[in-house]
Amino acid sequence: MKRKNVVLNRPVFAQQVFDSRSLTVLTTLFHRFPEAGDYDLTIWRDERMVHRAHVRVSMEGGPLQLHLDLAALEGIRESYLLASGGVIGFCVSRGIGRYRVEIVQLTHQEKIVRLDSGHVIPEGDLFAVTLVRPGIYRVLQVGGRGEGEIHVRLPGKERYRPDQVTRVMVGKEGVMEPRVVEILAGQSVVFWCTIPASLRVEWVKAMEALEPPIQRPQLTRRQPRQPAQK
Amino acid sequence: MAHMTVAVSEGVFRRSFDLLQRNLVFEKADSASFGSFTAGYDVKAHLEGGSVDLRADGTIRVKELDLRWDRLRFTLGLNIPELCVGGGCVDMPWPIPDICLPRVCIFSGDPDISISPDLVAFVAQEVSFTARLVVRYFDAALPLPSPDLCAPLRVEPPPAHNQWHIHIDPETIDVDLFDFPDIVGDLIEDALTDAVKALIPGGWVRDLILAIIGSVADLIRTILDIPDEIEEWLSDLFNVSFGLLDSIGTVILDFFSRCNPLYRMDDPLEIMPASNGLIAVRIPVRNLSVSVNDAEMVVQADVGA
Question: CATH fold of A18-116, please?
Answer without folding.
Answer: Immunoglobulin-like (2.60.40)
